[in-house]
Each structure stands twice: as structure tokens, then as C-alpha cells.
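BUG-677 | component: ligand-complex export | severity: low

The export step for zinc ion jobs runs without errors, but we want the raw record kept on the ticket for reference. Input record follows.
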Amino acid sequence: MSLPLSAKVPFGGDYNPEQWPEDVWKQDYRLFDSARIDLVTLGVFDWALTQPAEDTYDFALLDRIVERASAEGRGICLATGTGAHPPWLAKAYPEVTRTDFEGRKHRFGQRHNSCPSSPVFRRLSAELARRVARRYADTPAVLAWHVGNEYGGACYCALCAAGFRNWLRHRYGTLDELNEAWYTTFWSHTFTDWDEIEPPSALTEHWRGPDHTAFPGITLDYLRFTSDAMLTNFRDEKAAIRESSPTLPVTTNFMGMYRPIDYHRWAPHLDFVSWDNYPPDDESAARMALTHDLMRGLKDGQPFWLMEQTPSCTACRDVNPLKRPGLMRLWSWQAVAHGADAVLFFQLRASRGASEKYHGAVIGHAGRADTRVFREVAELGAELERLGPVSLGARTPARVALLFDWDSWWALELSDGPSRLVRYQQVVLAYHRALWDAGVDLDVVAVTADLSRYDVVVAPALHLLKGDLPQRLEAVATRGGSVLTTYLSGRVDENDQAFLMDVPGSLGQLMGVRVDEWDARGPEVVNPVRLGDGADQVDVDARLLFELVIPQGAQVIGTYLADFYAGTPAVTRNAFGAGDGWYVAAGLDQAGVSWVVRQVLDQHDLLGPYPDVPNLESAVRVAADGSRLLFLLNHRAEPVEVTTRNGGVDLLTGDRTAAGAALRLPAYGVVVLEEDR
Ligand SMILES: [Zn+2]
């Protein structure tokens, strides 16, 4: 089972007519008509509406909402409504509210507020999903099920403690195994009874906060447990839906690079991936590309839905800037370029009250169509209609893989030493930025992914090594590929215990180096690194972490220029099989990272069409019939002109472009070129 059936890219978003009288619904649908909105996501926070008391289910209003959407010819993504529990539930069963990291038992309030281990929550959330599915499974307009909402957070209550102990029994079998995995001879921690085990929180193993733990192995397991416990909640509801809806696809909206949930462990249980894109600022083009690619990589390259984005601004931040004219369109096309098969907003009509009343919406409080935001939405709707079905199901022909691993993210950031300043996402973003600047089509994949299709595998900060990954990376190089990894890789096993061998552990043979020592310094300390030689030589800055490398056969590509390790290697390349392993031992600046990455890409002739035009993004999707779509996205506030490599037709304008012709993109401009075959 995969994506919902559709004749074009679905366009629309979250819609909450239950907040409005029915005469407003009528106005809304006329506005949806003019914006070509053809899909509505309904009922995301409807629990209190559809189950006003434990023994009362009332679908009267949701029936009218669904009937109206159906009668208006819209597709429906129908939510189970369990993203926030109702007040009566918390009052009747206090166990459903969470206990936080500080040990405070919460009372009713907010949303995403349910204890994942509560038997009452599990029973009643599944029952609501069961009843929603039973009631609407035969409604032809319903295209997909939306379970919960933005799963996340954590709970440290007694029920979760019991759930954690069960999870540990399943993982380790015996206390001996657990004690060994957690290295409990340290600080007198040997457990002699399962009931002695506590969730790692501010009251137990932690100080300062969630990243400062006396036992990273325990905290790592609690993160895994929490992710799995919430996955169980999703699976409870999905199973309940399946009783009456055997074929409609089921999803939940992910949040991109979201640390608390290991989406790689979740993805097999979703029929298709969807996610909510709320970038931190206007300068996030590369970051969004990475996140889209990560979401597409969750299900082996299958396209995903962009479930939410704001048409204009968010409301949850201290300062909420407006998307400049053209940016909403550009970022929507960027999502499509990277594999989105739906473009949806939060939200279609602005809430009148509560915390999201200022969150951007397609229709504002005044209900007008003559606003800039509405006009831009309507123009995008018309463009997506013009595009038709050509991009649906199209795949990204990537020969480069970027490894992304929640275990490494967690282990690196829980670690005492070498440096709290090295953040997993920042390292990944720097290497991704270099690939993005070079215009490379890439997949962002789990460490368990099949690597046999890639010529280049980039694995930044691969701190935790598990399974047969080292052998599979060696296999990439053996057949002629390149593997690039960095400082703080190959340090610990899946229990967060150091390898009893030279750093970088079982990557050592492939990299042809051993790391003897490491030096962590504050951000103000720069150690310049000289890269390359002869005419190609360039000096760049390095910061935060400096590993002292002793080559074991690797060729030196870059050397430190300062401190007692001046003249020693900072970047190396090791011939391995028909390919090579590249090791970057220091926190190079972006120029340095890009220099190294381009060396690797050059070896495989993998630079994109416009690698030297800054902030002009290119991405390719190939449809099942072989049509090749080249997306060009100008992220600059000024126009840019390039020369086409291949001729084709711009699907947004119908204009034909010959090979070698000049192609001008306005500020924030987009071209979707169906290339000649
Ligand atoms: Zn709990």
C-alpha cells in the first residue's frame, strides 16, 4: 500500500469548520473553488466533539462536515482526532496526563498531552479511531487516514516506568545482559531487580537537563523506548482503522528533523510519509531540501505528502516573520521537486481564538479573497492544476547517499565529552549544504539502507556504529565508490560503549587512519587547515574539534597549520578496493567542507548542472514512464540567468526551451522543465 490515489498533486490543508457556523462553510468553499483547493484535512483535534463523554459518541457535526466536503467534490484526509484528549478524560482518568522530566505530574491542558503507556489512553484512542473509520470508511471522498498529530515529547510517570521495564526485558532478556549493556559496575549501579530501574530524568540520572546524564546507555534506551511507546499508540489506532478500512492508506504527520522520535523505526508502519514544514527562517532553503530528502528516504524513496506549511507566518515563535512574496510558491515547488505528492497548508481558515489565532491561513479573519496571501495560494493552485499528474509517483535518481541516524544523534548529544558544542544536526547540515550547493540529487537514508545503488556515501558524525554497516560501507568502496566520514565517527557501539580498538573503530580499515587523541576548543579558537596542494591549495578555518590522526596507509589531503599538532593530518583519503574512504578529522568551516565534498563528487562526475550558481537549486524527478523533470529553484531575491543543458518544455508556462539556450529565472523563480527524450 502506498500513497492515496489522486489525479494531480492534492492541494489544500487543515480545515476546522467545527469552529464556525455553517454559513461560513459556504463562503469557504467558494473561496476554495477560486484557489483550486481540492483536499481538506478534517477532524485533527475533534476528540471532545466526537466523544463528549466516555459513554457518548456524537458524530452529528462531523457527519455534516464530511457530507459538505464530499458534496463540494473535495478529497478528505480524515483524522482520528486523538492529538489532544478531552477534559473529561483527564478528570475521570488522571493516569492519561503526563509526568514531565522534572517529575511534575501534569493536569489537564494543552495538546499532545497523553501518556503513551496509559492503558486507558490506549483503549479509548483506539476505540475512537475504530468508530471514526467504521463510520466514514465507505465515504468515497475519504482518501487517507490521519492518525494523531505530531507525535512527540516524553512522559516519566509510573506507567511509563513499568512500560520501560517491560521494553528492557524484551530487549535484554536478563538483568545480567542489561547490566553489561549499561556498564553498571560504574558508580555502583548494578541492578538486582527489574523494579529498581527508574526512567532517567531530573530526579534520577540527569543534571542540568535532558542531555546531561550519568548513564548515556540508560538515557539512550529511554529515548528508544519513548519513540517505540508512541509508535505503539499509532499502531493501536491503525489496527483499529484496519478493522473496517482494509485498503485506505494511513499516515501521521512527522516533523522533519525531530530528535525525540526515530522516524526510521516508525516509517515501516506508515502507508505513506507526511510531514509539517516550518523552517526556522528565510535562509533555510538547504535545510528544507535536506528534510524533504530525509522524509522521502524513510520509505525507500517513495514520495510523501507535505501535510502542513504556513501560507504566510507561524505564531508559535517569539518573532514570526512573514514569508516574502513568492517564497510560499517557491518552497511549495521545492517540496514537489524533492518528492512531495501533495501540497497542503496549516491552515485553510484562521482560528478566531486560542494560541493559533495569528497563525497564517489561506483565509484570514476577514474572509477576503483579495489579499496577497490568498492570491498567491490561488496562483499556486492554478499552477498545480496545470502540472497535472506528471510528477505523481516520480522518483529521485540519486547516486549519492547521506546517512542520517537517530541513534548517532542521541548518543553524540548525550555524551560528556569531547564537546557539547558539536551538534549532530549542525554537522549533517554542513555536509548536506556542500552537496546541495553542488546541485547533487541525493537520498538521505538510514544506516540500514541498501547502499549498493550509490557511488558516494557521506556519513557525517557517525558516532554510533551498529550492525553490519562498516562492512557495507567497505563494500561501497570495494566496488569503486567513495565513503566520506568525519570526526567523532566510529566511537561507540549501540549500547554507547567505546570500542576496544583504535578510533574510528571498525571504520579504521576503510579510512586508513587511527585517531590518537582529540582536542576540543571553544568557538573562538581557530586552527586553520591547509587543503590540497599546488594550484588547488586553499586555507580554511576549523573549529570546535580537532582529532589527531596517524595515517595507516591514507594519503594526507589537508593538514593543521597551528598548535602543537601543526603539520599533522586533518583530512585524509585512503585508497580501498577500487574506491576510497575520506576522513575529515576537524570541524572545517563551510568552505572547507565544500572543498572536500567537491573533490569526492568530482571523482564520480556527480556535480549538478549549475554547481557554481549560488542559491540556484536543481533537483530531478523521473516518472514511471521515463519523463525526466528538472526543477530549477531560484532562492535569491534577484533574477538569475543560466544556459540550459537539455531542451524541454517548462510545464508551468508551456514555453519550449532549446538545449544551450539562455534561461532566465526571476527572483524566487521556478522552472519545471520536462526534458526532451
Ligand atoms: Zn507516562
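Assignee comment: Attached the raw record above. The chain has four domains: 11-154+229-387, 158-220, 400-603, 616-675.
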